[in-house]
Specification:
This protein is an alpha/beta fold and about 350 residues long. The chain has a single domain, classed as Aldolase class I (TIM Barrel, Alpha-Beta Barrel). Helices cover about 40% and strands about 15% of the residues. The protein has 13 helices and nine strands. It has a six-stranded parallel beta sheet with strand order 2-3-4-5-6-7. It has a three-stranded parallel beta sheet with strand order 8-1-9, with helices on one face. Strand 3, helix 4 and strand 4 form a beta-alpha-beta unit. Helix 2 crosses helix 9. The radius of gyration is 18 Å and the shape is globular.
Length: about 350
Amino acid sequence: MKLFNENYYDDETLKRWIEDDSLTDELNQKADKIRKEIYGDKVYVRGLIEFSNYCKNDCYYCGIRHSNKNVERYRLSKDQILECADLGYRLGYRTFVMQGGDDPFYNDDLMVDIISSIKKNHPDVAITLSMGEKSKESYKKFYDAGADRYLLRQETSDLEHYRKLHPENMILENRHKALFDLKEIGFQVGGGFMVDSPYQTTENIIKDLRFLEKLKPDMIGIGPFLTQKDTPFKDFHNGDFRKTLRLISILRILFPYALIPATTALGTINNLGREMGLKAGANVLMPNLSPTEVRENYQLYDNKICTGDEAAECKSCLENRVRNAGYEIVVDRGDVILRNN
Ligand code: 5AD
Ligand code: FES
């Protein structure tokens, strides 16, 4: 078996794979074979806790951007978050992903308190954070408190493209640096990007793949760009479903050991999107554990699925879907098999 990152493909090949729709099935099958050799039929589940939809940033694509006045904002208290974790634990989840907007309300002390409390209650779980760019000092405190993993999609690796997606106060270099800081501290790190975000070219995507080759992430999250009616990008088209499937496969081929989710965005653009994502090489699902009252309000894009379901319903729905697709859910922490440094 080839080791991580030994699979080099030139730009021309990648371009063809990204653009040629007729290659979709072939790429999906090739990727599924690779993930089967490494991870078998195993699909890892992560209980997702969307703990705040406040965000200080204003990314043009995102429904919870600061300037969107049509969002009913919420923050989960420490106790509410611990309750979500307890519920998730009872349902069998052994990884919790705490995802939120970039919300300074959750300062270092509060985060350290929450992280260490979850770890004290449930020493055998992994905690993944997904809460934006922070200082290296803050990340270190989170890590020392017991956080294991951090998701921070780079969104794009091209300066010009980055400027088209974000207002001026956001800086691509900071984001890339944050990812390397996280890695240096010891986190399992996840990068990623949206497929067909406005103004994205094939060359931009290839740059993202090259950036990921440098970063050597443990996790890679991608999903189609989906419009949100209150954002500056409301008139753009949704991302291409099959292109997203091809990119999942390309990621599996380039990064055989990576943990790659079949994302909610993929399940939103196509009813069988997550199942097809698994068949294209993905091996992670992230069912929602957030309290039902707040789910409607965490909408990065329109028509998000599962906003009305209880956590237990999400669990059984996903179990059925995974089984029907021919895979098997596992409930352990699901660490990456090979760390890459
Ligand atoms: N469509 C699809 N994905 C989105 N994200 C943010 N807004 C959208 C959208 N409109 C993605 C970003 C972010 C992740 C949490 O969700 O890539 O990093
Ligand atoms: Fe919140 Fe982009 S709008 S990080």
